[in-house]
Amino acid sequence: MRIKNLYLKNFRNYAEETFSFEEGLNVLYGKNAQGKTNCAEAVFYLCTGTSPRAKKDKQLIRAGEDAAFIRADAESRFGSVRIEADIYENKREIRVNGIKIGKNADLLGNINGVFFSPSELRLVQDGPDERRRFLNVSISQLSRNYYTALIRYNKILEQRNALLKNRDLELVFETLPVWDGQLCRYAAEIAFRRREFISELAPVAAERHRYLTDGAEELEIYSEKQYPETREEIEKKLSEEFAANYERDIRLGFTASGPHRDDLKILIGGEEARVYGSQGQARTAALSIKLAEVEIFRRNSGEYPVLILDDVMSELDLARRRKLLACLDGVQTVLTCTHTEKVLFGKSVNKIRISGGRIRR
Questions:
Q1: Among 119, 134, 60, residue whose Cα is nearest residue 309
Q2: Which CATH code for domain 119-304?
């Protein structure tokens, strides 16, 4: 998979600019706060329909403007694809090959992308929400069924939680089984897909981690909660679990179990990285997981995704920078940094200098 060009208009600090990307390593370089990360963000937005940085789309619009527009032309093993997005204050319109899509599920899978920046340390260091977010974004690109199940699960969960706050207990006990039947069906799909993904990801991440650390540390990844083998068994187990905890959930006023509460355990040398890992260990673990994610995409989709590495070089020593670049063979990569080091990049990469939201040639 390869993005050939990216066009930005009134996006972040860009008035209007067009980027041409090569198949291998594309290095966006320049001083801080010039727009390198904004370009990387636009690439990922067209992959997933979400920004890795902004909570609201209107934050992507250039100051003083009413709307932003971004477009990418890409090639995959299925042919050419053009993704366009018009972003307004309170809405957006996304088109795939000129056809407006009604839901985000129709965008996913057209251009697969993996994003890594220093903020991705949250994957290791923060709470369960960040690890579930990682799983959801990654698996959704590989499976539209997963994304659809996730959306529907969250809507039903919201309605179930609203019911649990109702003080008419007779109504609550009478209605909960109705919601649970639907909730468990989607929950089973989510739990099943996550287990498949984690079982593939864990050994590859461990291998990448051994490579980056010269075998000095061992990375382990597993799901904190273990589910049965089949979707049907998972659905039955969750149905029983929800029913057994009606009184607890009513007392709390929310659903205290289910995939929305599950966590991913990340261990380094047998110790939980979130609690005992140093900043450097967390960074290497997160990077190993992202590199493993790239490989899982290749195995499941038949081609590598676009890899976006934002300001990762400044956080690594020279030896690990070299090891990282050695992992990128065959992967189209958009990498941002403050300067291009000849000792690392040589002459065979596509270098693009950014200054003040413009390409400087």
A1: 119
A2: 1.20.1050.90
DSSP 8-class letter at 303: S
Instruction: Name which of 16, 112, 111 is nearest 67 in CA terms.
Output: 16
Tell me how long the chain is: 361
CA proximity to 289, closest of 143, 94, 125: 125
Helix (H) / strand (E) containing 237 = helix 231-244
**Residue 282 neighbours by CB under 8 Å, 6+ apart:** 121, 124, 125, 273
Domain boundaries, the chain: 1-112+306-361, 119-304
Quickly tell me which residue has 């919201």 as its tokens: 158
Place of tokens 């009134």: 10
pLDDT digits (tens, 9 = 90+) for 98-156: 999 989 999 999 999 999 998 889 999 999 999 999 999 999 999 999 999 999 999 99
Question: CATH for 1-112+306-361, among 3.90.1210.10, 1.10.10.10, 3.40.50.300, 3.40.190.10?
Answer: 3.40.50.300
One-letter identity of residue 40: A
The amino acid sitting at 154 is N
Binning pLDDT at 50, 70 and 90, where does residue 347 land?
low
- Supply the DSSP symbol for 78: T
**Collapsed DSSP state (helix, strand, coil) of residue 55:** coil
Bridge partners for 351 per DSSP? 27
Instruction: Find, among 44, 7, 15, the residue nearest to 336 by Cα.
Output: 44
Those residues with Cβ within 8 angstroms of residue 153's Cβ, 6 or more apart along the chain or in another chain: 183, 186, 187, 190, 259, 260
Which residues fall within 8 angstroms of residue 180, CB to CB, at 6 or more apart? 160, 239, 242, 243
What is the Cα–Cα distance from 178 to 249, expressed in whole angstroms?
A: 16
Check residue 62 and report its DSSP letter: P
Secondary structure class of 315 (helix, strand, coil) = helix
Phi-psi region of 271 (alpha: psi -120 to 50; beta: other; left: phi over 0): beta
